[in-house]
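Input.
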Amino acid sequence: MTWETVFGTANLLAFVMWAGLILLPRWPALLAAVLYAGVGLLCLAYSAGLIGILTGALAAGGGDAPADFTSIEGVRGIFASDGGATIGWIHYLAFDMFAGLWIARDADAKGFSRWIQAPILFATFMAGPLGLLLWLAIRERRARAGGRWQ
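Output.
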């Protein structure tokens, strides 16, 4: 399997899970599918790719710069390879989907309409921290009204 195939498969999985989260009723089975079949599989793919590249079991493909997490040059070296870019992208997909799932559950619990939720979830899908920031700002008044720990 090539890095391009892994990248495309991860993108397709993320798209299907996000579409379900935004458009479908939030049945317990759907929420479980997003968590385990979406976030869980993305985490598994990320972990396998990262461990495979770090141990040399998988070729990263491309990129000449030394790869490490201690400098911008090292991080650029990681993302300069097909494998590094793919696992980096899967990392984003997994964490953004986890944040989106939390937003959806939190918004449902606080009684926000799906019309309010949809653009926030879309923003989280497209630009994770931006959508999360929007949600944190929007939820604050209801969270405070319901008690700090809700």
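The CA atoms of residues 56 and 76 lie 19 Å apart.
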